[in-house]
Every structure is written in C-alpha cells, then in structure tokens.
Specification:
This protein is of the alpha/beta class. The protein has 2 domains: 8-38 and 267-366, Aspartate Aminotransferase, domain 1 (Alpha-Beta Complex), CATH 3.90.1150; 41-263, Type I PLP-dependent aspartate aminotransferase-like (Major domain) (Aspartate Aminotransferase, domain 2, 3-Layer(aba) Sandwich), CATH 3.40.640.10. The protein is built from 14 helices and 12 strands. The protein has helices at residues 8-11, 41-52, 63-73, 86-97, 114-121, 138-143, 167-175, 203-208, 237-245, 254-264, 267-290, 313-322, 346-359, 365-368, and strands at 28-29, 80-83, 103-108, 124-129, 149-155, 182-186, 212-217, 230-234, 302-306, 325-326, 328-329, 338-342. The strands form 3 sheets. It has a 7-stranded mixed sheet, with helices on both faces. A 3-stranded antiparallel sheet has the order 9-12-11. A two-stranded parallel sheet has the order 1-10. Helix 7 links the parallel strand 5 and strand 6 (182-186). Helix 4 runs parallel beside helix 5. The chain is globular. 46% of the residues are buried. It binds pyridoxal-5'-phosphate (PLP). Pyridoxal-5'-phosphate is lined by residues 33, 85-87, 111, 155, 159, 186, 188, 217, 219-220, 225, 230. Pyridoxal-5'-phosphate binds at residues 33, 85-87, 111, 155, 159, 186, 188, 217, 219-220, 225, 230.
Length: 370
Amino acid sequence: MAIEFAQKTRRIPVYPAAAGYSLGSEVAMLASNEAVFGPLEPVIEAARRAVIGANRYPDPSYRELRDALGERHGLPASRVALGAGSCDLLLAAGEALLEPGAELVYAWPSFSMYPHLAAATGARAIEVPLTGEAVHDLEAMAAEITVATRLVLLCNPNNPTGTALELGAIAAFLQRVPDHVCVILDEAYVEFSLTVGDPLASLELLEAHPNLVLLRTFSKVYGLAGLRVGYALCGSESFRVAVDQVRQPFYLSAAAQAAATEALRHQDAVEQRVTATVAARTELTAALAQRGYWLPSSDANFLWVRVSDEGADADVVAGLRERGVLVRGGSALGGPGFLRVTVGSERENARFLAALDALNPAGAGQGAGR
Ligand SMILES: *Cc1c(COP(=O)(O)O)cnc(C)c1O
C-alpha cells in the first residue's frame, strides 16, 4: 500500500524550479531574479561569527534583526515579522488567515507562490487578470472583495511583469478595502522601482491602514537569497503575532539573522547596486525594443518580454538554454508567449541578446511583436 497523503497535496502546485543549478558556472543564471553581486565581506564575516555559536539555538525573538529593521523603518520591533525568506511569511499568512469558505484576491499573472495559499488552505482564490499593459487592475480587484475575503495580495513591482503601480493608486485602493481584510503589499523588488521612488515611501501607508502588511526580502537587492531571510512591516502587531503562532519557533538560523542585520548597515552598497541594475535594465530594454519585441516598462531587476506566439515560449527557453542562458518561460508563469529574464551582469546580458538573436535572426518577426 502506498502512503496516503492529505488531499491538499493534490491541489498544491509544484513550484516551477529553475533548471541549471547543476550546470556549473559557465551558465548565465537569469531565471530567478537573484542579485549578480555576492554578499559583502562584512556580511560574510558576520555570518561566520554566528556559526561559532551554532551549538545553541538562535534567539527565538530574533531581537537583533527586528530592532535593526524597526529602527530603519521607524516602527516598533513588535510590528516587524521575520521569515525564512518572505515566502515563509506568505505561507504563514495563508495558514493564519485562510480556511475553507474564505477567499483571497490577487492579480494574474503574478508571483507563482500565491496560488499555493488557496491550495494549501482550501480557501477560494480569485485571480484578477492584469490590464493589457500588464498592470494590476485595481478597479476589478476592488470589485472582487466580498464578505468572505480575508486576504488581498498586491505585488509591486509585479513579478513576472516588472510593472509597478504608483503609491497614490495603492492608497486609493486601500481606502476601498474593509478594515478586517488583510492586504499584503509584496515589495520584493521595491528598491529597484523608479515609480515608487524611495523604498521607505510606502511606510506612510501603514499609518492609515492597520490591516496593511509590507512584505520585503533580503533575497534580491541585498543578495542573500541563499540564506533565506524575509521580513514584514506590519500596520498592526496582530499580524506578527498570528504568523509567529502558526510556525515553529526557530525558523531563522543564527547565521541568517547575523548576515541580514549586517547587510542593513550598508545602504550605500544597496544604492550602488540599484544604480547599476537600473542602468543595465534601461540598456537591455532598449536593445530588445529595437529588435521589435514588446515589453512593458520594468521597475524590477528583470524584464517580461513577448518572444513568440502563445505556447512557443518553451521553445525559445530551450534554445537559450542550449546556448547556456537560463531564463523563465511565460507559460509556466501564467503568460504564454513571454519570457522573464533577470537583468544580469553586462557579460550575461550580452550573452542573452546574442543567443536570442541566434534563435530569432529577424528580431520579433511574426507573432512576437504587438
Ligand atoms: C523573489 C520574490 C519574493 C522573495 O522570496 P524569498 O522567499 O524572500 O526569497 C517574494 N515575492 C516576490 C514577488 C518575489 O519575486
């Protein structure tokens, strides 16, 4: 007899893992929106020091990192939640907020983790299509909120499209959401956004909206994806208490906490990385547009490019992979015909363009333009 698993295991989608972790260093890893930059030397040193005491469990209140985040964002530590990556906080939010009969609302295509929340809890997911310009349709999303709604997810800038909403539009949307509905504003890429402008700007929204949670991560601009640290800045303490309640106490390693705390002290490095990424993004966007590809303007460290007729993106992804360039196909992310490519190093971006040109010598040609 085979093991009998819970019904939800048949509902939960399998995460579309990026291929290539076994392919070695000769591959351009442009599939997961990671930073091209490695951790800073003092960050590595902080993690090393933490490992010396690794016979002890980490401090389960994670005081050091929560205080540092509270200080940087002008919030009491009681309103700072942590997780093993922000995905850990998303799943915990699902567990704490959702159940059969409850509803959650999010845009689609958006972050591939969101469908997981309904599948894992038995809640009903309402996926609201992006506009033709690949932007959140806030009007349509507001119209989907009912008495059953417990959670609304906004991804700004949105993964996989890179598009961003202005904070004024989000503020107007929040006015329409009843106070008992939790809104998570997923800001994994906010540092790269010229539309938002300042990663501290959205904090102002928290003052008027105790039901709002800003979700952030050390995986992208801070370059610590491998250590798994995410955080949430909460409009009220109750969110932090609830997500801590549904998880094991030791979700964050001592090394991860120490590295993240140190990384926060180097905002100058963050700014340099953002400047370099934005310059490379502008250049890559222009190069693709010049070849006739349609792509929405990106506020993140990746681009969403229409490369083929619907369904044929997998062929383009395979062709790029054969040439040592790893990207994501849109079909797996809810946008057939598109691919999502991370803005990498100068050399990687050039390699991506050369590989794409080899596959599509005439540029966008038929089908891919718009
Ligand atoms: C990468 C990403 C995250 C961060 O995931 P971690 O678990 O913190 O590594 C969260 N949301 C979105 C939209 C992302 O793209």
